[in-house]
Design goal:
With 252 residues, the protein is an alpha+beta fold. It has seven helices and 17 strands. It folds into three domains: 54 residues, RNA-binding S4 domain (Structural Genomics Hypothetical 15.5 Kd Protein In mrcA-pckA Intergenic Region, Chain A), CATH 3.10.290.10; 87 residues, 2-Layer Sandwich (Alpha-Beta Plaits), CATH 3.30.70; 79 residues, Pseudouridine synthase, CATH 3.30.2350.10. Helix content is 22%, strand content 30%. It catalyses: a uridine in RNA = a pseudouridine in RNA.
Length: 252
């Protein structure tokens, strides 16, 4: 057998791009082929228009209309609605309840993106994509986190401006990106704070510094990923749109 014949007899490496897109739930194979021809698909930063393109689903970075699509089924992206009183750690040597208790039956090494203190409830992202987790936590990427806080009132009219201008804490100045008074009831107020800071207990320290200690705190969103009707302790996989929004937010 000639070298040319040997080359032709070797199986082609990778999987056809349209099949990978179909398996990822982007579109049927036929629709995926049309998307490829239209130049709507990029692989590793390069727009692909040839239908014969093969890729390795474990390593290829694929974007559809500019949005990252997960084709590597080894990657995990979860949302946990963390209940109050649960430690933000995978295990605790003193036997206290922790988020690892909710993940015992899941395969692979998972870790949480950032932390919520034990008394804080709400959205916690869990993944095995280390680079994504690092970028989501790093303040330079300015990924916004949204919190609903019940605080002691009354709330002065200039509090929002004060928080946006910045408040000096022991570890430096902190500014909120947005602030909104949601409700007032019997000497307490419900406020929404949006900020890209991720320092320890930042919302609690901030609100205490301006004279409105937090009584209850819930994180409701990270970027475009939001809690909806998930009960405390519930875990669900992120959908394709949510995953794409996180990668887009950190430039991946």
């Amino acid at each position: 057998m000639t070298s040319e014949e040997k080359s032709q007899s070797k199986p082609a490496e990778g999987v056809r791009l349209q099949k990978v897109l179909s398996q990822a739930g982007v579109a049927s194979r036929r629709a995926a082929e049309e998307m490829i021809v239209q130049g709507r698909i990029a692989v590793n930063g390069e727009v692909v228009r040839q239908l014969g393109r093969r890729v390795d689903p474990d390593t290829a970075i694929i974007h559809v209309d500019g949005e990252r699509v997960m084709v590597n089924n080894k990657l995990t992206h979860l949302m946990l609605n963390k209940p109050r009183g649960i430690l933000c750690t995978m295990s605790d040597d003193r036997g206290r309840p922790c988020i690892g208790d909710y993940l015992r039956k899941r395969d692979g090494k998972l870790f949480h993106v950032g932390r919520l203190d034990a008394d804080t409830e709400g959205l916690l992202l869990i993944t095995n994509d280390g680079e994504l987790a690092h970028r989501l936590m790093h303040p330079s990427y300015r990924v916004l986190k949204t919190y609903m806080a019940e605080v002691l009132g009354p709330i002065p009219k200039n509090l929002g401006r004060q928080l946006r201008d910045g408040v000096e804490l022991s570890d430096g100045l902190v500014k909120v990106d947005r602030f909104k008074l949601v409700d007032v009831h019997e000497g307490r107020a419900l406020v929404e704070l949006v900020l890209h800071e991720g320092r320890k207990r930042i919302v609690r320290r901030l609100m205490k510094q301006v004279g409105h200690p937090v009584q209850r705190l819930v994180r409701t969103a990270i970027g475009d990923v939001r809690l909806t009707n998930e009960r405390p302790g519930a875990i669900r996989p992120l959908n394709r749109k949510e995953i794409g929004s996180l990668y887009r937010a950190v430039g991946m």
